[in-house]
Amino acid sequence: MAIKFAERTNNMEGSAIRELLKLTQKPEVISFAGGMPAPELFPVDAMIDVSKKVLEENGRVAMQYTTTEGYAPLREHLAKRMNDNLQTNVVADDLLITNGSQQCLDFIGKAFLDKDDIVLCESPSYLGAINAFNAYQPKFIDVPTDENGMIMEELEKILEENDRVKFIYVIPDFQNPSGRTWPLERRKKFMEIINKYEIPVAEDNPYGELRYEGEYLPSLKSMDTKGLVMFLGTLSKVLSPGYRIGWVAAAPEILAKFNVIKQAADLQASTISQMEMAKFFDDYDVDAHIAKLREVYGHRRTVMLDAMKKYFPEGVTYTYPNGGLFTWVILPEGIDATVLQKEKALPNNVAFVPGEPFFPNGGHVNTFRMNYSNMPDDKIEEGIRLLGLSIKEAIDEL
Amino acid sequence: MAIKFAERTNNMEGSAIRELLKLTQKPEVISFAGGMPAPELFPVDAMIDVSKKVLEENGRVAMQYTTTEGYAPLREHLAKRMNDNLQTNVVADDLLITNGSQQCLDFIGKAFLDKDDIVLCESPSYLGAINAFNAYQPKFIDVPTDENGMIMEELEKILEENDRVKFIYVIPDFQNPSGRTWPLERRKKFMEIINKYEIPVAEDNPYGELRYEGEYLPSLKSMDTKGLVMFLGTLSKVLSPGYRIGWVAAAPEILAKFNVIKQAADLQASTISQMEMAKFFDDYDVDAHIAKLREVYGHRRTVMLDAMKKYFPEGVTYTYPNGGLFTWVILPEGIDATVLQKEKALPNNVAFVPGEPFFPNGGHVNTFRMNYSNMPDDKIEEGIRLLGLSIKEAIDEL
Fold it and tell me: What range(s) does the Aminotransferase class I/classII large domain occupy (chains A, B) (predicted)?
């Protein structure tokens, strides 16, 4: 067979995480690899109630096509929530509903990227975003970071030297994979820079409501005076990923492009999922639900970090996340996390995600990402103990 | 603001249908414009039962992430149904679940099309497909058709003369928009030609189960010996569009690309929607449900065609569909259906979709598409009467 695919498919790789997750589904594996919410915290009973109500009250509407921009009452809830929690000032019509925020990453690539255009992102960055943008054949420059996120002097230098930068992709709150959060001063400086260069920004905020300590910080979107910031939200981490409901809030000129792209991509998000989520917001206390998540995940974060302190050998460092789902581990130079995983951790039935795929231009093989939201305390403790042994072995072999 | 979008966005237009649907949502409008199933036939009670069962029995799985390829029990049901009804020989692992079949149209464009590659399609063709492919900047050649679908001599001529044809997009059963079906002999000839040229084919089959008279014909996929046919199916027309569940069945080499594309596009289809659909297949008689649709839609088809015979003036022709949701009207030369709609039909509170957007290279302004699935008998009769008056006026003004 002589099938000829598009040139862009040469760039396409399956997500290392998704492939790895298949390996880690054996019940004996303690997996810190995914980014999955804890299923025992899903509001299953509420959803039984909500889905019955939606179908009984409005089944013929729920099962029918709806508009591309999405179900208006859900967009109203989400806009209000953003304004209450993130200091934004958006209305329902500023939002488009997407299949999780992942879908909007694809839309951003599609709307902005010609081949060889440049995308800026944090170093490291979310690999699902890198994969989504890659389909449109850009070049990436990953901006150096420190413990407070993207370094603004480095960003400005890159913008001065490159005129094909189409947008900047950032996760200022509890970043995936690093767990880092940008302080207020850095956010302000960032907005100054992007206003000066008039560069669109994708602000991805899947974990923002999952803060375990400290003050909430204003979103970049709330500081956006020029309509440059596209805010990506999702219900995947705070309610359920299985319903595939995310959204983007953006300036009208950009949102109009996303609307046309959404039409061609899959017409609309699920009508019934949108109506069920809106009904959940109507009838249940979302804040109380999220408070519970914060309590459990914050505790697990502490358990993991305490165990790392206890079991990880000297020379290994890791971030201290104030929220979100991840911490980021840096091994001594010379240890390859992919090899560590394959030869030591998986045989010990422990899994994580090696860090290299989070760097769009590769390298940094001595890093990995750890998720703490999806394992109970005792498994976290035991997994970190086993992982500590694996790392020790690897260090001894250096 | 100096936002610079990608070149491809110049090609992007909102679907004429989706924009039109907004105009036609006033209750007084008799709309033949959409392609919507009849909401009074949705199995709402069954879905209340099914969604309760899925959440009660398996809520934590239903609300969690699942695999990109989709929920295995649903893929098994769909594969079996294809084999039973379409004479194919596929297994669950040949299928990937998508958000309606629209999403796979986007994936096909993404997987195959470099800028200026050629897509072949029927003339006219489904405008949602044209829009989806357009994002990847191809050229289209629409192959001439007659009352039996694509004309094979014309197809072969085009393939001889063009070496950048990447795939052929066809709807052999009850085509959207024309309502035409390819007879068996033409299907065989088509497969001979595509086997000779080794050209991939997207066989879009949203309406295949909605046959109102005559024998079911084998799908192109069932005749595919070289793994060239990508079969696109959907539950939108036979169960519910609101759940956004479609699928593609394709050769492993192609399916692997779609899997990677799906990961980057939105990770996966809704877990809970997939489980609910699988449970519906488990617990309910899908065949009996579809038999009911056939009865109602087949009757409406007859009501519409009888009314057209009665009320449409001489010189207007239309197709006789054996199934599906649409008939295609050709007006006398010199009448522009867009003008007819705006100046005569909408003021009479009747709506349809003008035909030009169904031709990727434009023209054919004297055509339009009519849907008969979504209106009761009396409204069909009255709508066609009013439309007949509108057309008469337009002819008189010629």
Answer: 47-385
* Interface size between A and B, measured as CB pairs under 8 A: 259
Name residues 78-107 of chain B within 8 A of A (Cβ): 98-100, 102-103, 105-106
Question: ipTM of the assembly?
Answer: 0.96
Is A25 within 8 Å of chain B by CB?
no
pLDDT band for position A220 (50/70/90)? very high
Q: What is the rounded average pLDDT of the residues B104-130?
A: 97
pLDDT of residue B20: 72
Establish if B4 touches chain A: CB-CB under 8 angstroms.
Answer: yes
Assign domain A44-283 one CATH number from 3.40.50.1440, 3.40.640.10, 3.90.1150.10, 3.60.20.10: 3.40.640.10
Residue A253 touches partner B, C-beta closer than 8 Å: yes
Nearest CA to A248 out of A83, A87, A107 is that of A107
* Residue type for position A272: I
Q: How far is CA B268 from CA A68, A96, B68, B173, in A?
A: 19, 19, 4, 28
With CB atoms and an 8 Å threshold, state whether B228 touches A1: yes
Contacts of A18 in chain B (CB under 8 A): 67-68, 263, 267
Q: How far does B56 lie from chain A, in Å, by closest CA?
A: 7
Residue of A nearest to B227 (CA): A1
pTM: 0.96
Calculate how close chain B gets to A385, using CA atoms only, in Å. Answer: 28
For domain A11-43+288-397, which CATH number applies: 3.40.50.720, 3.90.1150.10, 1.10.340.30, 3.40.50.11890?
A: 3.90.1150.10
Q: Which residues of A touch B227 (CB under 8 A)?
A: 1
Q: Each residue of B285-308: pLDDT tens digit?
A: 999 999 999 999 999 999 999 999
| CA dist., res. A272 & res. A278, Å (int) | 10
Q: Give whole-number Cα distances, A74 to A240, A245, A261, B94, B203, in Å.
A: 15, 10, 20, 36, 35
- Average of pLDDT values for B228-244? 98
pLDDT at residue B60, as a whole number:
97
Residue A10's pLDDT is what? Answer: 85
CA A212, A130, A146, A248 torsion-angle sign:
negative
